Amino acid sequence: MGEVIVVTSGKGGVGKTTTTANVGTGLAKLDKKVVLIDTDIGLRNLDVVMGLENRIVYNLVDVVENNCRIRQALIKDKRYPNLYLLPSAQTRDKSAVTPEQMKKLADELREEFDYIIMDCPAGIEQGFQNAIAGADSALVVTTPEVSAVRDADRIIGLLEANEMKNTHLVVNRLRTDMVKRGDMMSSDDVVEILAVDLIGVVPDDENIVVATNNGEPLVGSNSLAGQAYMNICRRLLGEEVPLLDLNARNGIVNKLASLFKKN
Amino acid sequence: MKWTDIFKKKSSSNVAKDRLKLVLVSDRANCSPDIMDQIKNDIINVISKYVEIDTEGFDIKITQVESEENEGTVPALFANIPIKDMRAPKNK
Q: Domains (ranges, CATH) in chain A?
C-alpha cells in the first residue's frame, strides 16, 4: 500500500511546487514508484516545473468526472522509469472536485504506487481541503520569514484539527550568510517557533531557477539544493541522514579544504 | 549596519522571532480582543459573587507555558485578579 503525502504551506510562493517536483523525482530516483498530483485547479504549474507541459491530454478533473480512466490521464516521465504526473485542469476552479472524490482517487492510486504526492494550492480554502483529504502525512514548506512562518503555523493547526498523523517541516530558501549576520531566522529558530519535526533544510540556490527554466528537477545533482532535496527523500524512506553543511561550496578549493578537515 | 549599532540593536532575526512568538500566541488562541473582553467580564461576574474584586487592576492574558505532558509549550490563560474584600458583597 502506497503512502499519500501532501505538500502544503499556506502562503504562496515558498516553494511547494518545487518541493513536490524534487521530492517526487528524488523518490523515483531511489527506485520508488511515484505519482505527482497537481491539485491546484485553475493555476496549473507542476507540469511546467517538471517539463511535461506538452504532453497533457486529460487532467485531474477529467478523472474525477469519469471522462477518462486514471491510466489515460497519467503522464509518464520518460526520464525515470517509475515517475508519473497527474496534471491539474487549467480552465476550472477548486469547486470542480470534492474532498471525498480526492480521497477515493488517492485510495485507488495507493494500490499501484509507493508514493502519491499532492501539490497543494496556497490558501486554506477548498483547494487545501481537497489536497489533504486523502493524505497520510504532510510536508509543510516554509521560508525563514515572518509571513511564511505565521501561515505555516496556521496550516499545522489545521492539519492537526484534520487529524493528520504525520507532519514534517521543510525550511526552504535559507541563506546562511544572512543567518550568520543575524538578519535571517535560522532553521533552529523556525523549528523552535513551530514545534514540529524538521525533515530538511533547503538553501536558497540559483540552480533551482535554472532547473525550473529547463523543466528538470535538480534533486540528486551536485548543487546544494539538489543534495538537500535528495536528503529529504532519504529521510522519508526512513534513513538517518545528517543535515547538510550549507556552508560548503562546490569549488575545488573548498573540496580540498574539506579533505584536510576530515583528516 | 554601522559597527556601533551592535551595541544598540537586536539583530533583525531576533526581532522577527520575538514578533512571531507574540503574534502566534493570539493566532493559536483564536481569540479576538472582543472575545478576550467577554471572557474578562464573565470572570468578573463569577468571582464577584463570592468576593469583592478590584476591576481596575484586573488583567487577563494568554501566554505560552512549558508543558510537562507533551514537549514544548502550550497556551495558558493567566488572570491577575486583585481582591478588595474577601467577604462577599452583600448587595449581590
A: 3-262 (3.40.50.300)
